[in-house]
Amino acid sequence: MDIKAKWIAADWGTTHMRAWAIGDNDSVLAYRESNEGMKDLQQNEFEPVLLRLIENWLDDNKVTNVMACGMVGAKQGWVETPYLKVPCVPIDNSQLTIASTKNTHIKVYLVPGVMQHQPADIMRGEETQIAGFINENPNFNGVVCLPGTHAKWVSIKDRHITSFKTYMTGELFGVISNHTLIRHSTSIKGWNQASFEIGIHEGFENPGSIGSDLFSLRSESIVNDLDRDEARSRLSGLLLGLELNGAQSYWKNNNVTLIGSELLSNNYHQGLKILGGESQLFSLEAATLSGLSSAYKELNSESE
Amino acid sequence: MDIKAKWIAADWGTTHMRAWAIGDNDSVLAYRESNEGMKDLQQNEFEPVLLRLIENWLDDNKVTNVMACGMVGAKQGWVETPYLKVPCVPIDNSQLTIASTKNTHIKVYLVPGVMQHQPADIMRGEETQIAGFINENPNFNGVVCLPGTHAKWVSIKDRHITSFKTYMTGELFGVISNHTLIRHSTSIKGWNQASFEIGIHEGFENPGSIGSDLFSLRSESIVNDLDRDEARSRLSGLLLGLELNGAQSYWKNNNVTLIGSELLSNNYHQGLKILGGESQLFSLEAATLSGLSSAYKELNSESE
Predict the structure, then answer these.
(1) B179/A211 Cβ within 8 A
(2) Chain B environment of A244 (Cβ under 8 Å)
(3) Interface test with A, best of B126, B181, B212 (most A CBs within 10 A)
(4) Using the 8-state DSSP alphabet, how is residue B83 labeled?
(5) Which of A145, A265, A300, B137 lies at a C-alpha separation of 20 to 30 Å from B198?
């Protein structure tokens, strides 16, 4: 099938690269993904990796714009894009960085991340999803949470990011279940809802006991034959409950919008519900594409 | 030098093996160590590893007793020793397990670990240090803390362990500083006392924010050029402060005795002091040797 993209959207993170061929009216014509994330690429490898994924979508008679967000714009990425500083709009089109390419049929724009000085914090990629969410909800004032390896809790007011806070809960879950003695007691995939709920309560109510509650997953498996799926679910609940304790000021008295993978967003929704919090999901892909689309359109309106 | 041991003490943990040749009046005649820990050995490799370390200390005209404690008695170790259950004396000499050997000039006794059913918890090795400490302080009633990969807080009454709680703080420090993005921001060895103290306060006062405080070590290094030694020291303080929050019931209103490596025990002593707690150090080696010595002597008195 011969697909020619009007423009191309790319979400290029630490471990994955996702690309969409976009047609008229922001329709998605095609999608491709790769596990060639930023962390595995040298600077000169970004262009060939990108071309391999999108080559078939290019029209040789014109220059196709590629709008990219994520860690591709980090210091270790393709080109470093200087952070915007809060309070700020999530995407400022006058601040896009162009990644120079040998191929003359593409022009690659990178969306900068956002930083906060006090307390110090950073994001790269999430600003685009926030921009997309705001595009779809221009009058929104409140709290957005983006679950992930490094979950972000973000306050939004008048289309601006006013402050945010990152919790490395996802990364902690990864290293604890893969690199500590707890790996002997947890399953890779299984799930037990009741154990997740126990974990949510424990983590939330006794945050200082986390180091002990984690060890008890191992002890429980040795002393009381704790099931591996139960251990994994309780671990997940413990770490999320801990985060929800720390992030209370964001979600108490706020209906939180969750933008993340469906699986993870559902966990956050459940966790909040167990603790009396309210939330709803917003599609991660829709947020990403709407954010990149707004950057593309403004670019286009300027050049016309 | 021709050293012949009266008996041999061995502390055989997950990652290390330590052996002492003991003479009259519990004098240490020689010491050897190896990094052939339990985790790297198959069942049939324990005897050859032990012999290589202690062979020169054996008298061919008699059988030398080897008193060993630690993970060598775990399921994955040489021979599994069934746990004692709290409340219990730390070492019950009627419960030692003999590891059978091909060599007829040694007789190897393993000290069992201690378990707790509710809440589930386990120790292997620390019971011997606790026994040693109690030997030297027979009237002690109170709290002992054994810092380490898996720190133990232990209540002792009338020479018995009444309850205990494990915090996997040391293991968390290891995986966080080696396997998360924080590794890019921390040094391997450096130290900054002021940063350690900041960490102690943060971890203790806002335990639910740990996932965010950890990420901020990375953000601070990117946004505000946080020094690597400062980041490492703050990480150490954060995790210890978190543990000291959880373990408050053990150390508030108690003068805690710390039994661990000098470096780690000093950190715990400092951390407690910063938060208004009192503690003093007791030598780890003295505790281990006194514990194994008491097991040896009782054995000997029975066989006489």
Answers:
(1) no
(2) 208
(3) B212
(4) P
(5) A145
Residue B169: what residue type? T
Contact A175, A149 (CB under 8 A): no
How is the beta sheet containing A106-110 ordered, strand by strand?
A28-34, A17-22, A7-12, A64-69, A106-110, A97-99
Query: 3-state DSSP call for residue A147?
Result: coil
Reading the block at residue A1, the tokens are 């099938």
A197 vs chain B: nearest CA distance in angstroms?
17
- Which helix (H) or strand (E) segment holds residue A268: the answer is helix A262-274
Which helix (H) or strand (E) segment is A293 a member of?
A: helix A284-303
The β-bridge partners of B164 are: B154
CA distances (Å), origin B82, targets A39, B152, B160: 46, 20, 18
B243/A115 touch (CB, cutoff 8 Å), yes or no: no
Could you give the domains of chain A? 1-116 (3.30.420.300), 125-304 (3.30.420.310)
Residue B98 bridge partners (DSSP): B109
Closest CA–CA distance from residue A256 to any residue of chain B (Å): 18
Structure token pair of residue B191: 């130290």
- Each residue's pLDDT tens digit in chain A (304 positions)? 689 999 999 999 999 999 999 999 999 999 999 999 999 999 999 999 999 999 999 999 999 999 999 999 999 999 999 999 999 999 999 999 999 999 999 999 999 999 999 999 999 999 999 999 999 999 999 999 999 999 999 999 999 999 999 999 999 999 999 999 999 999 999 999 999 999 999 999 999 999 999 999 999 999 999 999 999 999 999 999 999 999 999 999 999 999 999 999 999 999 999 999 999 999 999 999 999 999 999 887 755 4
ipTM over 0.85: yes
Q: Per-residue DSSP letters for B165-222?
A: EEE-HHHHHHHHHHHSGGGGT--SS---HHHHHHHHHHHHH-GGGHHHHHHHHHHHHH
Q: Residue A172 to residues A94, A99, A238: CA-CA distances in angstroms? A: 36, 33, 11
Count each helix (H run) and each strand (E run) in chain A, helices first: 9, 14
Q: Which of A27, A104, A17, A96 is nearest to A63 (CA)?
A: A104
Q: Quick check: A210 and B242 CB within 8 A?
A: yes
Query: CB–CB of B211 and A169 under 8 A?
Result: yes
What is the sign of the dihedral through the CA atoms of B224, B225, B227 and B228? positive
Q: Are A289 and A19 in contact (CB under 8 A)?
A: no
Which of B146, B179, B210, B224 to probe the A interface (max A CBs under 10 A)?
A: B210
Q: Determine the angle formed by the axes of helices B126-136 and B284-303, rounding to 10 degrees.
A: 80
- Residue B102 sits at φ, ψ, to 5 deg, of -75, -35
DSSP label of A64: E
Q: How far is A179 from chain B (nearest CA, A)?
A: 7
